[in-house]
Design brief:
This protein is mostly helical. Helix 1 packs across helix 2. The protein is rod-shaped.
Length: about 80
């Protein structure tokens, strides 16, 4: 299946920005990378980092939710004491 040259992918932009010559060799000339195992390790590292970043975002969201719940409980407690 031929590549659609009218579509620009974010990974292509990143590859071109990092090293436009390497992008040109791979995409235009079809030259294989010198060390495919290195690319595989890089892909695995990026996937692992992505999972860590996603989990960190989730934990931050949970932390904000718990903080807001604590503030709500504190406010209700203070209102209860003032009324009673």
């Amino acid at each position: 299946m031929a590549k659609d040259r009218s579509l620009v992918r974010a990974s292509d932009l990143g590859s071109w920005t990092y090293c436009n010559r390497a992008w040109w060799l791979a995409q235009v000339k079809g030259v294989a990378h010198e060390d495919p195992a290195l690319l595989e390790r890089g892909d695995a590292a990026h996937h692992a980092h992505g999972r860590i970043a996603l989990n960190a975002g989730r934990l931050a969201l949970i932390g904000v939710a718990l903080g807001l719940a604590g503030l709500a409980i504190l406010a209700l407690s203070l209102m209860w004491q003032l009324m009673g």
